[in-house]
Amino acid sequence: MKKLFLILSVAMFSLGIVDAFAQDNANEGAATEQAAATEQAAATEQAAVAETTTVADVDAEATIAGESMHHVMMQKFLEGGWAWMLPILIFLIIGLAVAIERILYLSLSTINSKKFIAQIEEALKNGGIDAAMEVARNTRGPIASIYYQGLLRYNQGLDAVEKSIVSYGSVQTGQMESGLTWIGLFIALSPMLGFMGTVVGMIDAFDAIQAAGDISPTLVAGGIKVALLTTLMGLIAAVILQLFYNYIVSKIDSLVNEMEDTSITLTDILTAYNKK
Description:
Layout: H1 2-44, H2 46-80, H3 82-109, H4 113-137, H5 142-152, H6 158-176, H7 180-212, H8 217-274
Helix pairs in contact: 1-2, 1-3, 2-3, 2-8, 3-7, 3-8, 4-5, 4-8, 5-6, 5-8, 6-8, 7-8
């Protein structure tokens, strides 16, 4: 599943790049054709030239505004340098793939616990432990898995049921938290690589100043601009991944609380069933 999402993410990103370049080429071609048409119209009627030029300027501004997002992003990415920008981008893509996989996993793990508990109680009344185990087996999610493990050890006593609930609850929590360490790693590495790229860029700028023997505002500003782009990219990647990370953690905490609550309910249900 994780590999599938990684492939899809890389494919979507690649298609986005191709689409951006395609749009750039299409816009350049359209601008060239429009310029040629304007020049031809200027040769025939001078009065229509002013009017046509005004319309062409408006269309050109609209075209630039429409392509500015793709164009600016690609330009800034290339200005920052592949050596530092590409690893940060890879971290962002892989982190998003892991985050999306975790969100889907946790969403599929969420069930209506009240309805599930009612089904377990109904199965216990009508078919006993085996019927309740069948209901738990056919229900997805960590809560159903904990119920199944507890019901499976009912014949060993309620103490064994409680121990299995606690032990398997820890196992389910570990499975839900799988992949979070990678997201946390990418959150930490992205700005660190960005800062490292900035430091290296500043060193290169000062080396250029030393080689030129004079401080040129253009040279210094250009070097600092390129250096700061890596920091910007790293911070953007870290912020995006941090938002997903916090959402996943809150989702896990909610599921863990629900698991603990329903585990207590299972113990009460089996205690009442044992007294019959």
